[in-house]
């Protein structure tokens, strides 16, 4: 558009205008390149530590300790093999996945009806309740570590997957309610009313019509529940000892009497990044909305 | 959107209420319980009034941890917010590269927090880490387990690495909501780049930026795992933030009373910030509903 305005045909433009135009052109040329430089530097800054971890996970321990090499000279998958063949290692992943999936299912199951209620109806104490939920999302896990330990020990749930799943509900249920409410308010209420007039019961309407409409919202909420349960360590470590020990806590075993097994530690770290990296592509456009609790 | 009044909606909220009550209210009451009692062992507790609170308030230790916490939160906000805005402005608007940037930027956000700590622990080591080795090679004395400043810089840079993308993603989402017509109008008025930023982009981003700042403040205020893995709170107490101090007190030394009093004061601060957050959110919702 602007190019046609500055087309070469406009020969009658006075000299100073031409200079202006040249300046404008250089500015336009320089500006995107400035952005590219900023982005390249930033992405490099993000990727370097991750690359270093990946690099180390593919080296032997002798190579790691014998000096700095920018890429593995003797490429080895030994470290990964160690983890994937040793039950005490890979059970860490299995444990983590079990409680994370449990937590996601529980959180979504209770959050869906609640989010619907918040987005459609006003009732006594709704605003206070909504605020109270938020305070739980913001609560420091450190405050809850000790009481959780005592609570779950006293009811005999210590060192079970369900204990961690329930504990993570502390911040994931509020998060799911807020995100889902944000998506649900975008669905016009006429749809609900039409469905009721057509004789749908609430349950049937909710499952058959409403849930497909907010499918992307459910996906995003599930992703965030999964993610926040996956990255949390303080509570999951406090509530488990052997049977439900998460991978993040298992990683400390690389520190032994003979020093640290760096290669295996790095490989274990890389493997914890994989689940997030696999699904991030699908939610890339909603990730800001999820972090802002459904409010962008 | 005016909502219909329906008290039966309580039944839909009930499951959440029960679940969160189980995972939040009961533990919190335990904390309150401990904060007003003392024990000589054998599970015999007696009423202690507000003595623990008085003791904690008079204790240097908590104030020092709070001071470090506030300094830390201010530093990372001062770095992450401008940097996040800069990155958001530099991001491609659409197409393959926009998706690429979104995915790569989200990566650090999805890494378990102790792995973030591990990554930087390795990265900063003089013998095997790229950063530590490079700094050492060019003659900078860098040792994050011994030196006060090195420890702080490592923890701050790690947090910038971990969370700047969050600010950038939110600011980017705000930028995406600006219609092209605004930029065209600015071009017709021959507005400078700064004017475009100041009068078009910044006001449109203000809402999401507020959310980003509050989220970053709150999350940095309860940071635990990452600095714990890298520095363990040291050297000395240099990087012992509130959560690290609290866990040390509660699970390490089992000082239940003081730890509980500490927890409650900690929680009250969080409650206050949450309230600010909530007010901002609801005001944003109202503004969206209007325009």
Automatic annotation (TrEMBL), chain A:
Main localization of the protein described in the UniProt heading: membrane
Membrane topology listed for this record: Multi-pass membrane protein
Cellular component terms per the entry's GO annotation: plasma membrane
InterPro entries for this protein: BP-dep_ABC_trans_perm, MetI-like, MetI-like_sf
Compartments where found: Cell membrane
Keywords attached to this entry: Cell membrane, Membrane, Transmembrane, Transmembrane helix, Transport
Transmembrane segments: 35-54, 97-118, 130-149, 161-184, 205-231, 262-283
GO biological process: transmembrane transport
Pfam families: BPD_transp_1
Family, per entry: Belongs to the binding-protein-dependent transport system permease family.
PANTHER family tied to this protein: ABC TRANSPORTER PERMEASE PROTEIN (PTHR32243:SF52), MALTOSE TRANSPORT SYSTEM PERMEASE-RELATED (PTHR32243)
Protein name (Swiss-Prot/TrEMBL): Sugar ABC transporter permease
Organism: Roseivivax isoporae LMG 25204
Lineage, highest ranks first: Bacteria, Pseudomonadati, Pseudomonadota, Alphaproteobacteria, Rhodobacterales
From TrEMBL, chain B:
Lineage of producing organism: Bacteria, Pseudomonadati, Pseudomonadota, Alphaproteobacteria, Rhodobacterales
Localisation per UniProt entry: Cell membrane
Keywords recorded for this protein, A-Z: Membrane, Transmembrane, Transmembrane helix, Transport
Main location: membrane
Cross-referenced InterPro entries: MetI-like, MetI-like_sf, Sugar_ABC_transporter
Organism in which the protein naturally occurs: Roseivivax isoporae LMG 25204
GO (cellular component) term, any one: plasma membrane
Transmembrane segments: 12-36, 70-89, 96-123, 149-175, 196-218, 259-280
Residues in ABC transmembrane type-1 domain copies: 66-277
Protein name as it appears in the record: ABC transporter permease
UniProt entry tagged with the keyword Transmembrane helix: yes
Membrane topology category: Multi-pass membrane protein
Gene Ontology BP term (one): transmembrane transport
Transmembrane helix listed as a keyword: yes
Family in the record: Belongs to the binding-protein-dependent transport system permease family.
């Amino acid at each position: 558009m602007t190019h046609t305005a500055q087309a070469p045909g406009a020969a009658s433009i006075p000299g100073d205008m031409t200079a202006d135009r040249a300046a404008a052109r250089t500015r336009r040329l320089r500006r995107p390149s400035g952005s590219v430089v900023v982005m390249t530097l930033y992405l490099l800054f993000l990727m370097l530590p991750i690359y270093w971890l990946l690099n180390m996970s593919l080296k032997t321990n002798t190579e790691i300790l014998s000096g700095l090499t920018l890429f593995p000279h003797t490429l080895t998958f030994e470290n990964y093999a160690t983890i994937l063949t040793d039950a005490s290692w890979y059970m860490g992943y299995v444990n983590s996945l079990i409680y994370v999936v449990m937590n996601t299912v529980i959180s979504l199951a209770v959050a869906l009806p609640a989010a619907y209620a918040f987005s459609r109806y006003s009732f006594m104490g709704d605003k206070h309740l909504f605020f109270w939920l938020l305070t739980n999302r913001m609560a420091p896990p450190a405050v809850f570590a000790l009481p959780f330990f005592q609570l779950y020990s006293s009811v005999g749930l210590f060192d079970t997957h369900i204990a961690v799943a329930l504990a993570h509900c502390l911040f994931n249920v509020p998060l799911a309610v807020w995100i889902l409410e944000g998506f649900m308010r975008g669905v016009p209420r006429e749809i609900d009313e039409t469905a009721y007039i057509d004789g749908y019961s609430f349950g049937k309407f909710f499952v058959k019509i409403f849930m497909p409409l907010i499918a992307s919202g459910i996906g995003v909420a599930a992703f965030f529940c999964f993610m926040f349960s996956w990255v949390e360590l303080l509570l999951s470590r406090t509530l488990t000892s052997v049977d439900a020990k998460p991978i993040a806590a298992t990683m400390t075993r690389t520190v032994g009497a003979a020093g640290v097994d760096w290669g295996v530690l790095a490989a274990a770290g890389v493997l914890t990044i994989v689940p997030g990296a696999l699904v991030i592509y699908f939610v890339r456009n909603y990730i800001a909305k999820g972090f802002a609790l459904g409010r962008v | 959107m005016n909502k219909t009044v329906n008290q039966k909606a309580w039944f839909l909220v009930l499951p959440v209420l029960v679940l969160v009550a189980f995972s939040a209210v009961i533990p919190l009451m335990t904390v309150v319980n401990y904060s007003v009692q003392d024990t000589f062992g054998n599970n015999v507790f007696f009423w202690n009034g507000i003595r623990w609170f008085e003791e904690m308030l008079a204790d240097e230790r908590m104030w020092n941890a709070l001071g470090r916490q506030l300094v830390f939160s201010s530093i990372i906000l001062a770095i992450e917010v401008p940097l996040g805005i800069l990155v958001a402005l530099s991001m491609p608007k659409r197409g393959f590269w926009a998706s690429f940037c979104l995915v790569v930027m989200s990566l650090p956000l999805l890494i378990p927090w102790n792995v973030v700590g591990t990554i930087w622990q390795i990265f900063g080591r003089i013998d095997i880490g790229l950063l530590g080795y490079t700094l050492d090679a060019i003659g900078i004395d860098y040792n994050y387990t011994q030196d006060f400043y090195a420890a702080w810089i490592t923890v701050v840079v790690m947090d910038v690495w971990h969370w700047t993308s969050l600010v950038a993603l939110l600011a980017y989402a705000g930028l995406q909501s600006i219609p092209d017509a605004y930029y065209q109008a600015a071009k017709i008025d021959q507005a400078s780049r700064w004017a475009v930023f100041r009068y078009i982009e910044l006001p449109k981003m203000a809402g999401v930026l507020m959310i980003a700042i509050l989220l970053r403040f709150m999350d940095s205020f309860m940071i635990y795992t990452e600095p714990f893995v890298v520095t363990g709170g040291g050297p000395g107490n240099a990087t012992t933030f509130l959560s690290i101090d609290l866990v040390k007190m509660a699970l390490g030394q089992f000082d239940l009373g003081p730890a509980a009093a500490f927890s409650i004061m900690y929680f009250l601060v969080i409650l206050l910030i949450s309230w600010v957050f909530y007010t901002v959110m609801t005001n944003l919702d109202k503004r969206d509903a209007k325009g």
